[in-house]
Amino acid sequence: MKTDKLIVTNNSLVADSYENTVDLEGDFLDVLKKVRDMVYENYSLVSHPLPASIRMFYSPVRSVIMKPGFSQNSVDLIEECIEKYELTMGIRKPDYRNLDDYKVLDLSLLGQAIKEICE
């Protein structure tokens, strides 16, 4: 992956597999909040912060690709994503029982995103 991009993640498999990561403790929502903070610190989104599958909302892990530079679209998008995540999850809790499987899925989806970005 190009060095100007970085990955915000709470997935140890991603942190061990890629350079230029911001490795976090916490769950999916913590990743979204860190991404939001970084957007306000002059970073922009490269990959979408939310998964395409509703089942992946239950994943406790998430990885998001970012790059330096301000984008108003990124500001708007991350705020909407946090609201949507909180609304969708409601009182539900992340599915830690299947954490290892979610880590593998997140790593695979991230790899595909990186492949598409680099093409």
Key phrases:
4-stranded mixed beta sheet, 13% strand, 4 helices, 119 residues, 4 strands, alpha+beta, single chain
Estimate the global geometry from the Cα principal axes: globular
Main beta sheet strand tally, sense and closure: 4 strands, mixed
Q: Structural class per helix/strand content?
A: alpha+beta
Summarize the amount of helix as a percent range: 40-55%
Content of β-strand: 5-15%
Helices and strands, in order, run as: EHEHEEHH
- Radius of gyration over C-alpha positions, nearest whole angstrom: 13 Å
Treating each run of at least 4 consecutive H or I residues as one helix, how many helices? Answer: 4
How many beta-strand elements?
Answer: 4
State the strand order across the main sheet.
2-1-4-3
Which ranges are low-confidence, i.e. pLDDT below 50, for 5 or more consecutive residues?
none
Distance between the termini: 11 Å
Estimate the mean pLDDT confidence. Answer: 95
Gist?
This protein has 119 residues and is an alpha+beta fold. It is built from four helices and four strands; from the N terminus they run E-H-E-H-E-E-H-H.
